[in-house]
Predict the structure.
Amino acid sequence: MAGSEVKADAWIKEYITPWDVYEHGIKRLLAYKRTQFQEMYIVETGAYGKALVLDGKWQSCTGDEFLYHEPLVHPAMIAHQAPKTALILGGGEGATVREILRWTTIERVVMVDIDGEVVDACKEHLPEMHQGAFEDSRLELVIGDALQYLADTKEKWDIIISDLSDPIEEGPSFQLFTQEYFQQIKGVLASGGFFVVQAGPTAIAEIQLHARLVKTLRTVFPHVTSYASPVPTYAVPWGFALASDTSINTRPEPEEIDALLAEKTTGGFKLIDGISLLGLLQTPAYVRKAIAEADMIYTLKEPPKFFGKGVKGNE
């Protein structure tokens, strides 16, 4: 294009839909490994800093990860008001743990990730994301299968966060977006607890996965709220679903939220405050319509199938 200067020699091409591609210009490859479970890249981009890529799908990037991790964690924490325990399923970069540990009420966090090689690589190459969270005495890191952990645990959790990689068929997590999985979650959620799941894109061309996930959650929990955050390196707004047996206040008073955060967190937020939370929780009409019209409940027999993988190539 006239007047434009392309600086990258290497690119990661991510297929968004059968008709859309997002290419990320790469400055350096920091780590690569085909683990037992997935293919991992850690790269340095030209515009957004360092990023984790699993099975060709962008996971998070230091330049804009706060637009994913803060909305993933804090609406549930705020809804609870004073959580003491949290269970994270996935979350290899450590940024989800980082955000939970901002809460001074938190006494215990368990993070369960199936891929220890990815976690180790993130510890080494992505300190900007975990910011030392793996060293916090309140954290117990478990390398293992989320379903097995849920089956074995006798604990009840105030907050459960499902921060899993996208449910592509070749990946390790597609079964963890199903009705059976959500029923297991409900069984270990404490009374008055909240569960949040990263629930796929809410872009027009890709809304079906999110809509079906929310509809599936509503067969298990009486209260489910859909919300989304714009994440530039995903190329689309990213959806989340907050679920509980307790009602969810989707119109909180901003001043009350700001006071709560000032009292019970260590601060440092880039996105979340009272006004931002109020905005996040206002589900757009097109999303509500898609959820109402969703035609499938995800089960182990019929799990979700996320579109596409990415590829790395040279200019």
